[in-house]
UniProtKB/TrEMBL annotation:
GO terms for molecular function: 4-hydroxy-3-methylbut-2-en-1-yl diphosphate synthase activity (ferredoxin). Its cofactor is [4Fe-4S] cluster. Keywords: 4Fe-4S, Iron, Iron-sulfur, Isoprene biosynthesis, Metal-binding, Oxidoreductase. Pfam families: GcpE, GcpE_C. PANTHER family: 4-HYDROXY-3-METHYLBUT-2-EN-1-YL DIPHOSPHATE SYNTHASE (PTHR30454), 4-HYDROXY-3-METHYLBUT-2-EN-1-YL DIPHOSPHATE SYNTHASE (FERREDOXIN), CHLOROPLASTIC (PTHR30454:SF0). Its EC number is 1.17.7.3. Converts 2C-methyl-D-erythritol 2,4-cyclodiphosphate (ME-2,4cPP) into 1-hydroxy-2-methyl-2-(E)-butenyl 4-diphosphate. This is 4-hydroxy-3-methylbut-2-en-1-yl diphosphate synthase (flavodoxin). It comes from Absicoccus intestinalis.
Length: 353
């Protein structure tokens, strides 16, 4: 799929924008000064496929913890900073690979200059994050409510500050809890700015509401060729964010190293306990990095057809099922052996088969 052309920004050794793939991002939900816990969480997210991680920086303890964290992870780290330019400087010196900062919110011109010079010295990009619910008072009063035009106007102010300091190593985001406003704002931004765009629906809620809102907003944008990094914000465990982002990118045909799990919804024709098998295989496939389609079907009506086109499949019968590989029946197995046999076949599967 053709991506909208943007400037290319490098975050450590990770290229964002240009013709590069859409980068999966998440954010730790642990206070950054708790370095051991943060490192453990980041490593878990790495194993699931996270490519860029953001941590909050609320005070100097958080900023100083970044050095230890960066030394013990393998993906680039973004420091999230608000209002205090000294925290930005401390995070940059500690080894943050990118900062999230709105330059119009850190006070005097000389404060901005100090941050920009540090970013230039250490080759650290800045993400300007525009939130529809937190626009400047005069912009909110001008439009009367959060609008795409108001979000673009706010971004222009912050971008202008950086460009006046000859700084173009910039990423932009335009988040809202309203998915339709997100679509409008990002589309307008892609026509207005040459910078890479970080996609997200903010304050999206639970796994259910976030999945629906993010699929609606970000799916449309990705299919338009818009977006260079993505975070699906979910209340709770951030590992859910990685799993959802991978699924969305896979379904938009933007990545191909994510398993595709097909499972029928079950009905009165199903004569075996299918749900536990599907759930266990879904968990197992989260850490599998292969382009493989696995089908688990409940009966003989749709089962054989879906199984025929899958790489590995189960077509269920009465308390048993047929194990099928590349359309060929391998063996008949009882339900209590289905999970084990599927895992064995998935582990042995080679994508070039």
């Amino acid at each position: 799929m053709k991506r909208t052309k943007t400037f290319q920004v490098h975050v450590k050794d990770l290229a964002i924008g240009g013709n590069n793939h859409v980068v999966i991002q998440s954010m730790c939900n642990i206070k950054t000064e708790k370095t051991d816990d943060v490192i453990t969480q980041i490593r878990q997210l790495e194993s699931l496929g996270c490519e860029l991680i953001r941590v909050s920086c609320m005070d100097m303890n958080d900023a100083q913890a970044i050095q230890t964290i960066v030394q013990n992870i393998h993906i680039p780290l973004v420091a999230d900073i608000h209002f205090d330019y000294k925290l930005a400087l401390a995070c940059i010196e500690a080894g943050a690979n990118k900062i999230r900062l709105n330059p119009g919110n850190i006070g005097k011109k000389e404060n901005v200059e100090k941050v920009v010079e540090a970013c230039k010295q250490y080759h650290v990009p800045i993400r300007i994050g525009i939130n529809g619910g937190s626009l400047e008072r005069d912009i909110h009063e001008k439009y009367g409510k959060p609008t795409a035009q108001g979000m673009i106007e706010s971004a222009m102010r912050h971008v202008k500050i950086l460009e006046e300091h000859d700084f173009y190593n910039t990423v932009l985001s335009f988040k809202s809890s309203d998915p339709l406003l997100c679509i409008e704002a990002y589309r307008l931004a892609s026509e207005t700015f040459p910078y890479p765009l970080h996609l997200g629906v903010t304050e999206a809620g639970t796994a259910l509401t976030s999945a629906i809102k993010s699929s609606l907003a970000l799916g449309n944008l990705l299919l338009d060729g818009i977006g260079n990094t993505i975070r699906i914000s979910v209340n709770g465990d951030p590992s859910q964010e990685i799993i959802m982002a991978k699924e969305l990118l896979k379904d938009c045909h933007l990545i191909n190293h994510v398993p595709n799990l097909i499972a029928c919804p079950t009905c009165g024709r199903t004569q075996w306990d299918m749900e536990p098998v599907v759930n266990e295989m879904e968990d197992y496939l989260k850490t599998v990095h292969k382009n493989i389609t696995v089908a688990i079907m409940g009966c003989a009506v749709n089962g054989p057809g879906e199984a025929k086109h899958a790489d590995i499949a189960i077509a269920g019968g009465k308390n048993e099922g047929l194990l099928i590989k590349k359309g060929q029946i391998i063996e008949k197995i009882p339900q209590d052996q289905m999970v084990l046999r599927l895992k064995q076949e998935i582990d042995a599967y080679k994508e070039e088969d």
